[in-house]
Amino acid sequence: MNVPPDPRPGHRFSPEAEADPSPEPLAGERFAADLPSHAAATPPSPAIRGEDALTRPRRRRGLLALMVGGLGLGTLELGKTLYAASLGGDWLAAAWGMLGLGALALGGMALVRELWRLRRLRHHDALRQALRTLPEASPQTALGLAERLRVALGLDDDDPHWRGFLAARAPHHDGGEVKALLDHHLLAPRDKAARRLVSRMSSETAIMVAVSPLTLVDMGLVAWRHLAMIDRLCRLYGLELGYASRLRLLRGVLHQMAFAGASELAGEAGMEILSLNLAGRLSARAGQGMAVGLLGARLGLRTQRLARPLVFPAGEAPRVADLRRELWQQLRRLETRDTDTRTR
Amino acid sequence: MRQPLARELQDLLERGRDRQLRLAVTGLSRSGKTAFLTSLVNQLRHAGLEARLDLMDAAREGRLLGARREHQLDLGVPRFPYDAAMAALDADPPSWPEPTRGISELRLAIHYRPARPGLLGRETRRLTLDLFDYPGEWLLDLPLLDQDYPGWSRQQASTGEGERAALFAGWRQAVAGLDPGAEADEARLAAVAERYAEGLRAAREAGFADLQPGRFLLPGELAGAPVLQFFPLPGIASLDDRALAALPAESNYATLARRFRHYQQHIVRPFFRDHFRRFDRQVVLVDLLGALNAGPERFEDLSRALSRLMQSFDYGKRSLLTRLFAPRIDRLAIAATKADHVTPEQHPRLVALLEALLAEPLKDLRFADVPVRAFSLAAIRATQARRISHRGQDTPVLRGTGLSGEPLLLYPGEVPERLPGHDFWARQGFDFPAFRPTPREGGALPHIRLDAALDWLIGDKLR
């Protein structure tokens, strides 16, 4: 590369020598009017995945091919065995073949059901994404989206909540207004039920942990109760979970709790310390129960936030702080009864 | 007018507890103030029963119990003619309420259940809402308070070219020979002032909005008084302030300036002091469709009038002290009225156009950190939104009744998102037809988005 030498002191430049053939257009440069031009780069459409998408696309085609191939080949081989056995009159082998075929059919059905439920999860996610555009939607599209939400929530045409929504809706309501109405008429009852569920199940788990004698039992108990809670929450919002979809959702929830929830955790640290102080006044076991209960409440609320078809309006998402008091009261009651019986 | 001390103390207490709101319903003439107030009273009266106020949180949650008209604050001011307006709407055939010709007041007591019961655990609470109605023509006098006669005169002489100037041709002719320094001739001044008032009236008929002074259009009991016999003097444009001050006291200029000052101090200032100073919330109503129908010159005229007007109000955050002693407007709604005269999918465009029209005042409000929201609303809905299949396409239409009683089913056309250029006006204008109110079938008046506007204006006090 030909680098020009540094100018010596006292070097004079001629004005014309400045012409630097740079590719930058000069100010005021004119181009031929018929030069083909295309639209300036538009920002890519915002992919709303990551932060709080239900599922993160991760195809395991290899695993799927392996399972389908295994099932297919197994069926073929067993079929052949069955055929040979029926020709040879070997009834025992034929019966074993039948049994094997039955087992394969069951496995295949399970696989299909899993795939079906995964699809449901994906559909649910698609509906969530579609509903995110609701505030900008025109009155016509908004009504279409509302209908989709009704089907997803499993409401009938003559469900009182749906009828309440239809009565409140007017033809001039735009997307944002339809969203407010849907929030109130279709989702608020579910939200209330979800909150009750989270509160009840997390405090039950807390009490179970507080009274259970064995750590091993605790672990099993916590896992079982929390999975059941996630299942029931999802069913409330019209989402049926299979094994794989549950794993996927759980991964999303844990991911959220670990990363997206970190800032929230920091914000609530003060309250957290306070509640641990309170827990310090309980026995060690009850303190453990409190911690587990809080974890359960957090898990439940995160799941609720992920599974709710309409994203919560800003500042209206339920917070753990709202549930803490109930949890504390439950444990407190248990503790006082405990000491009462002991003193007696 | 003095009020009993106990009454004032009670009001002060209510304001201190923030249980009293004064809502300014601002709008030029024919922007739909009376219809807005009538519908507001009607909706709140029927709240919790037949009124559909679904976009109002308190009403949707069933916490709004209703409202009642109360004895008003100032016994010297007529009561808002709600019953007369309702009678007009219920007549056969129904008609729009009569335009306002004077000031009237109304006090509403709203009862509601708080979302979370307070410490005292009272089941219901009450909010007092003070409203008042006035002729929109008088509103444009408020900017006069900050002006002096030479400044006003120069401003008035410079506004208006084209069609507007043509309407004032008679006055210009009459005022042309008037020497500012010459001795005033009462009869001649009265004649020129009459020409000026004629020009204003003609301009109002032609759809212009920026018309000062407002009492010339609707003088009330002041008709014929010398205080209404002044006008801008184009002859003083070339003179500076010192030369003007040197003119003798009997000169045309000094006489007109005296009258202007009297008008300002004894007519506009009491109007402002008694009614406009103490507002907490404001809604600005704008008849955008009427302005579009009238053409580009009137549209700019409206924009100028509104931005001048909004400088007369006090905006800012509220605190306990300001609430008690120097109330300010801390929340504002701007609304394009008569939204029922266009099809629903045009509403966002109507809002965009409104924001474009009020761009300058909105910047000031943003600077003062006052929350503003724009709405497209119809206080009393006169049409139904329908769809028809036209040439194989699904087309939105409106169904209603024209002013002369003929049934209409029509597509009123598109609202532009911003003011179109002059060549567009030359090619084609807008023609949004007017509708008359539909007969009421009992219950509350139908409306568009009045509930959303109410929620924005008073919803935070109904929590």
Shape of chain A: extended
| Amino-to-carboxy terminus distance of chain A | 96 Å
Helix content of chain B: 25-40%
Measured as a percent range, the helix fraction of chain A is 55-70%
Descriptive overview:
The complex is a heterodimer of chains A (344) and B (463). By secondary structure, chain A is mostly helical. Helices cover 69% and strands 0% of the residues of chain A. Chain A contains ten helices and no strands. Chain A has helices at 61-88, 91-132, 139-152, 160-168, 175-211, 215-236, 243-267, 269-281, 284-307, 320-343. In chain A, α5 packs parallel to α10. Chain B has 463 residues and is an alpha/beta fold. Chain B has helices at 5-16, 33-45, 57-60, 82-90, 136-139, 149-158, 163-167, 169-176, 186-205, 241-245, 252-276, 288-294, 296-310, 320-325, 347-357, 359-367, 422-427, 450-458, and strands at 20-27, 64-70, 104-112, 125-133, 281-286, 331-336, 372-376, 384-390, 393-402, 407-410, 435-436. The mean pLDDT of chain B is 84. In chain B, strands 2-3-4-1-5-6-7 form a seven-stranded mixed β-sheet, with helices on both faces. In chain B, strands 8, 9, 10 and 11 form a four-stranded antiparallel β-sheet that branches. Chain B has 18 helices and eleven strands. Chains A and B meet through α5 of A and loops of B.
